[in-house]
Amino acid sequence: MGIISRGFGGRRRDSAPDLPPGQYLTHDFPVLSAGPTPRVPLDRWRLTVATESGQKHTWDWSELLALPSEEITKDIHCVTKWSKLGTTWRGVSLDTLFEDVETAADYVMAHSYGGYTTNIPFEDLLDGKAWIAYEFDGEPLHPEHGGPARLLIPHLYFWKSAKWVNGLEMMLEDEPGFWEAAGYHMYGDPWSEQRYQGD
């Protein structure tokens, strides 16, 4: 079951034309999670990219922070119909992480501390479209928002931006993750309102 913070309000789409159809604008940052919030000590945090051949590339926290980072300002859109505009993050581009990864895979399964998973086409992680984000609004990313680090894929519904990310598994065939297996859309484009299977 999702958990949502109390009392966030919004405006309808007609007063915020930059929103995808069916979305409402919020100035809060609602908290929605599929389960309890993991608390991951930084000295135990790891991110692993596992290719379809079994090769693994792993970064610890200090190695992640040593990589080139970017400040990213993007709109985010939740499948529960809230949108937050102009959010500012800092993180490492997936282009950087995949520089030395050899793969023929077309899909990725993101894995998180706590067991959450979500599937993403590999091409949606490249060309400046996705990051491992560890700051929000100039502060370390709070655990309830996915800290210490989360996946950030702002052009897709926000359930694809897996909180507490710890692994990216390369896949030759697409497979559903947690919410996709429960009936959510396999892709999740907010501008096409791809909320559920069949949308």
Summarize the structure.
This protein is mostly beta strands and 199 residues long. It is built from three helices and eleven strands.
Question: What can you see in these coordinates?
Answer:
The strands form two sheets. Strands 1, 4, 5, 8, 9 and 10 form a six-stranded mixed β-sheet that branches. This protein has a five-stranded mixed β-sheet with strand order 3-2-11-6-7. Strand 4 (70-77) and strand 5 form a beta hairpin. The chain is built from three helices and eleven strands; from the N terminus they run βββαββαββββββα. It has helices at residues 61-66, 94-97, 178-181, and strands spanning 24-25, 46-50, 56-60, 70-77, 82-93, 107-112, 117-121, 131-136, 139-140, 150-152, 165-171. It has one domain: Oxidoreductase, molybdopterin-binding domain (Sulfite Oxidase, Chain A, domain 2, Alpha-Beta Complex), CATH 3.90.420.10. By secondary structure, the chain is mainly beta.
